[in-house]
Write a structure and sequence with these properties.
alpha+beta, Rossmann fold, two-stranded antiparallel ribbon, 6 strands, binds S-adenosylmethionine
Length: about 160
């Protein structure tokens, strides 16, 4: 989730991008308070795709319960707020889901947690998302059980106003 990559000089004049493997819900001792220019994250969407199949204890894709998932995301939001410089941005890509055939606004729940830790919402960009590997499976289900496919994701752009 925390991916700041190798120097991409064509895109950014001075951008230190580091790839690290660590639990984003915990405080990162290597990163000082207000030292980072931009945070970009693409967390799991609860347990829709299980990334480590329980091999990594703190893998957020182990969590099925939406509120428990959001409690963990709030920790990530808090840590992002701590490391980000004032007036800089944090981008979060998030999808919605269904439970018992009912629509669950997971993205808005996550958005609320970022705002709870003092981020301001600058933009909500809708990313059209369909024709995925598993779409054929959901097309059939949506016809059988009479629901619409979820065909978009939210790219939230939060700003640290301070
Ligand atoms: C939706 S995928 C994002 C994939 C990313 N866009 C990429 O191209 O690598 C979610 C990622 O979050 C990682 N992840 C899950 N729990 C995490 C945690 N507690 N800390 C850091 N990363 C986590 C998963 O391993 C997975 O790679």
């Amino acid at each position: 989730m925390w991916k700041i990559c190798e120097e991409k000089k064509a895109l950014f004049q001075k951008c230190l991008i580091v790839t690290k493997n660590f639990d984003a819900t915990e405080k990162n001792k290597d990163l000082k308070k207000e030292s980072i220019d931009f945070v970009l994250m693409h967390p799991p969407y609860v347990d829709i795709i299980k990334y480590s199949e329980w091999k990594i204890k703190k893998d957020l894709s182990n969590i099925h319960d939406l509120d428990k998932f959001c409690d963990e995301i709030e920790k990530v939001a808090k840590e992002s707020f701590r490391i980000l410089k004032p007036w800089k941005y944090c981008a979060v890509l998030m999808w919605d889901t269904r439970r018992e055939k009912m629509y669950q606004s997971l993205a808005f729940k996550v958005m609320e947690r970022f705002m709870k830790v003092w981020f301001a919402l600058k933009e909500d960009i809708i990313k059209v998302q369909h024709n995925c590997k598993a779409t054929w499976f959901w097309v059939k289900k949506s016809k059988d059980f009479n629901f619409l496919l979820i065909m978009h994701e939210h790219l939230f752009i939060f700003k640290k106003l301070k």
